[in-house]
Amino acid sequence: MLAKYSSTRDMLDADGDTTMSLHSQASATSQRPELGHTEHQRPSSAWRPVALILLTLCLVLLIGLAALGLVFFQFYQLSNTQQDSILQKEEKLGNLSRQLQSLRTQNRKLAETLHHVAEKLCRELYNKTGEHRCSPCPEKWKWHGDKCYQFYKESKSWQGCEYFCIAENSTMLKINTQEVLEFAMPQSYSEFFYSYWTGLSRNSSGKAWLWMDGTPYSSELFDVMIDLTSLRSRDCVTILNGKAFSKDCRELRRCACEKAAAMVKVQSLHEPLSRRWR
Predict the structure, then answer these.
(1) How far apart are the C-alpha atoms of 176 and 145, rounded to whole Å?
(2) With b meaning 16 or more CB within 10 Å and e meaning fewer, what string describes 27-62?
(3) Is residue 243 within 8 Å of 235, Cβ to Cβ?
(4) Distance between CA 218 and CA 215 in Å, rounded?
(5) Least C-beta-crowded within 10 Å: which of 65, 73, 153, 234?
(6) β-pair partners for 197
């Protein structure tokens, strides 16, 4: 009986152990998903700060882009404003430049008009007195047209007169217009046959007559009287008593020089005008 009880208890213990073992296995099986779920949730909690940081960086980047866009917009507006201002200034500068050019043109025209009036008045005074301080020519020089003339009493060869005129900052007399001819020929009248060298010459009898600057002589203005009895290697022209003669360039004749007239001395007109208006 004891043996039967003992075997029965052993069987119960064995069943209990089996039951406990099955319960333990079931408990372990039921607990594994919870551990897996716990392990699955841990990475999610770890990425939250990273995601928050990335979101913050994105917001900062968006704010920076917005600020950059605002700055670019302001710079664009400022650039357009400055460009408009530059265009306006360039337009004003162009208008001022045109006005200045117009004033310069008017000033030049006024100066030319003043010069013509002063020259006309000075010429009237000069023709009345034969000499005036307003004359654009040096002292003792004769004013005619736009040139100054001087007929010297010194006698020299043709080349000597050339050097003499150069020393006086002038050239030898050139008769190339009717006005100059009508002015110069009366200066050649002399009771003692003093003729004046001109700047007209030629190298030989077969060559053309040329003035000192290389321009040709015009026979329509005056004729040159040539002495055919004497042959020379070089001929030069003198004027005497309203006529032109071919002479040996080595002969001694008086010098006639010319130079361009300067500006009329306007300030020298004030004194005669004040006396004239009194």
Answers:
(1) 13
(2) eeeeeeeeeeeeeeeeeeeeeeeeeeeeeeeeeeee
(3) no
(4) 9
(5) 153
(6) 238, 255
- Domains annotated for the chain, with CATH where assigned, are 142-260 (3.10.100.10)
Q: Are 142 and 148 in contact (CB under 8 A)?
A: yes
Question: For the chain, first and last CA: distance in Å?
Answer: 183
Q: Are 257 and 168 in contact (CB under 8 A)?
A: yes
- pLDDT tens string 16-63: 554 444 444 444 444 444 444 444 455 566 777 878 888 888 888 889
Residue positions counted in the chain? 278
What residues contact 152, with CB distance under 8 A and at least 6 apart? 164, 254, 255, 256, 257
Residue-level pLDDT at 182 = 94
- For the segment 137-172, what is each residue's pLDDT rounded down to a tens digit? 898 899 998 999 999 998 999 999 999 999 999 999
- Residue 88, phi then psi, degrees to nearest 5: -65, -40
In contact, 165 and 158? CB cutoff 8 Å: no
Residue 238 has pLDDT above 90, yes or no: yes
